[in-house]
Design a protein that fits this description.
Blueprint lengths: L10 H25 L4 H13 L6 H8 L3 H13 L3 E5 L7 E5 L1 H22 L4 H25 L4
Antiparallel strand pairs: 1-2
């Protein structure tokens, strides 16, 4: 595929477009969370459990990712467990720790909600060359790292 001609944009225009995407995404996350019977924070925590795959996270891992206290993550995990989204498993190397696993049927329910959106995004990516996709991947990866670092530096309670 040949790269399409793209309109010129300034960094300010790119930031504005990013802000619009983030705002729309936040509204969408709220709507999707309601569809699956969760809060946005609970859905985000569940997404991190899914992302971890076989490397099951601990409650502490999830608290750090979601930027909540370990006490708050206990409440999140209690709700997710009651709703059938996760199970807690003992850590095989440390009996004092608990690992969190996603329930396969819950993963399927959440993916079913996201699949039409991801299909549209995949279709959108088809308009970009492999080199452009590489730039997008690089930018998203670096921007995510930058955002996480900023949160750690400026948004963590002392």
């Amino acid at each position: 595929m040949h790269a399409k001609s793209r309109p010129a944009a300034t960094p300010e225009q790119a930031l504005s477009a990013m802000d619009q995407l983030i705002a729309t995404h936040l509204v969408g996350q709220h709507e999707i969370a309601q569809q699956v019977g969760l809060s946005v924070t609970d859905l985000t925590c569940f997404a991190y459990v899914i992302e971890a795959g076989e490397n099951l996270p601990t409650a502490g891992d999830l608290a750090a990712r979601v930027h909540v206290t370990t006490g708050a993550v206990t409440g999140i995990l209690n709700r997710l467990e009651r709703a059938g989204y996760i199970t807690r498993r003992p850590d095989p190397t440390d009996r004092r720790r608990i690992r969190v696993a996603a329930q396969p049927d819950a993963v399927a329910r959440v993916r079913e909600v996201y699949e039409p959106y991801y299909a549209r995004l995949t279709h959108l990516f088809a308009d970009y060359s492999p080199d452009e996709i590489a730039v997008l991947h690089d930018w998203f990866t670096r921007a995510s790292t930058l955002a996480a670092t900023y949160l750690e530096e400026h948004c963590r309670p002392d």
